[in-house]
């Protein structure tokens, strides 16, 4: 039985690595001509590191990434709460910050070690299920067959469209902005910093490397939104983006399976998207090998729904303009500063939920 994975983002690469290392005959195709130099996701959660351990990817990710071991929550310029993610130096209790293009590059290396290379410049245009196989049709006119096909081709998934699965949800109206910058003297070089700015606005700063930071905000200019001055020495990129909150209601049609952004998308609040895709892909590979693919769709749908609900809950709370939520924010952060149990709950939600 062979598998064709469509899309060499973090989800597709994880699926291919996890299948290849277990001896499955797997191919992976992508419409790009080479790996993306554009980084969206930054935070790798402990569960993803655990899933990628057997392939050897985690050791390399850990070598390169920055361990984020605390979170600082601000209301405007005023720090309300510091949460230590590893108060006792625990082994895995941190978020690993690494630019997504580096994560993908490490996964491609692991795949090559298992004898599989990404087939670039292969744009899939259609998928057909015939009696005993799946036909993948490419932009160059080629039709190739496989036993199973995994659509890990991102938010605008052609695989999803081809098999007729709805992507239900909403497109949020507001514009978000992002900036990757070098900066001197930023005091939170191993910390996640979140600013609640009032009027439903927020900004987040995450370290990417020793003196490089990612700034994201639900305003049109992430750097201008920061209430604390950042001494920026170089802007690597700046841009704006929109967010959708969507999920498919089934993760497979016959032998065609969906994973990652092809199956779900939500706001970057909580840094869950890539991690959820890695989790989908690892579960697909495990179930493929142990013959339990029947349970994939229900299991991944439930997990996806839970993550979207949690991420949307936090986004709505932080962005709420109501006076009640402003008071609740102050009360909760003040209480969490004093109550170890609340801090533990917050830590577990950030790292493991
Ligand atoms: C600003 C921002 C910040 C984020 N931060 C985080 C974070 O900190 N943590 C986190 O977990 N997530 C984060 N995310 C979400 C994360 O980036 C995505 O969830 C993740 O990239 C999804 O991976 P994927 O492999 O499913 O899809 P993608 O990364 O989109 O990869 C899809 C691949 O499929 C290929 N492809 C598409 N169509 C075809 C076709 N027809 N034929 C062949 N190939 C095709 C594409 O070229 C691409 O390589 C963030 C997102 C944004 C926008």
From TrEMBL:
One of its GO terms (molecular function) is FAD binding. Residues 2-309 form the FAD-binding domain. Keywords: FAD, Flavoprotein, Monooxygenase, Oxidoreductase. Its cofactor is FAD. This is FAD-dependent monooxygenase. It comes from Flavimaribacter sediminis. The keyword Oxidoreductase applies.
